[in-house]
TrEMBL record:
NCBIfam families: PRK13285.1-1. GO terms for cellular component: cytoplasm. Acts as an anti-CsrA protein, binds CsrA and prevents it from repressing translation of its target genes, one of which is flagellin. Binds to flagellin and participates in the assembly of the flagellum. InterPro entries: Flagellar_assembly_factor_FliW (IPR003775), Flagellar_assmbl_FliW_dom_sf (IPR024046). This is Flagellar assembly factor FliW. Interacts with translational regulator CsrA and flagellin(s). Its main location: cytoplasm. Keywords: Bacterial flagellum biogenesis, Cell projection, Chaperone, Cilium, Cytoplasm, Flagellum, Translation regulation. Coiled coil: none annotated. Belongs to the FliW family. It holds the Pfam family FliW. It is found in: Cytoplasm. The lineage of its organism: Bacteria, Bacillati, Bacillota, Clostridia, Eubacteriales.
């Protein structure tokens, strides 16, 4: 199938690539179906594109690529709600806020997006850890 994003143009995807957010991402009401797209020329970044609004596309990345000691402890409630059976099925990404000055690019380590890649359920959670910030600089000086 093909989805046309207002910003990223035509994106090819399969039905089994659709990630459902039963608890919608805060600020994006009305968008529950997304696809995670590799941005080949911009590794390690990906696009989390809404299939219900062609203007909603979040740039995300694996926080572990930039923060080696990053820890996410999932509650039993989240594990059950997302139907997580095995750790290998979990994808964790954080949103990126872009800036023309690379030193001002930030990532939201406080509220990662958890995706069960097996059943394609996702949810953004808020970590109860004061060392993580909503606008954490992506690159340390």
């Amino acid at each position: 199938m093909i989805f046309t994003s207002k910003i990223h143009g035509e994106i090819e995807y399969e039905n089994d690539n659709i990630i459902t957010f039963k608890k919608q991402i805060p600020g994006f009401d009305g968008s529950a179906k997304f696809i995670l797209v590799d941005l080949k020329d911009y590794e390690p970044f990906k696009l989390l594109q809404s299939l219900e609004d062609d203007e909603i596309g979040l740039i995300v990345t694996s926080p572990f690529d930039f923060e080696q000691n990053y820890e996410v402890k999932l509650s039993e409630e989240i594990i059950n709600r997302l139907g997580i059976k095995e750790e290998k099925d979990v994808i964790i990404v954080t949103t990126i806020t872009l800036n023309s000055d690379p030193k001002k690019i930030t990532t939201n380590l406080k509220a990662p997006i958890i995706i069960n890649n097996y059943n394609k359920l996702g949810e953004q959670i808020i970590l109860d850890n004061s060392k993580y910030e909503i606008k954490q600089p992506l690159v340390k000086e």
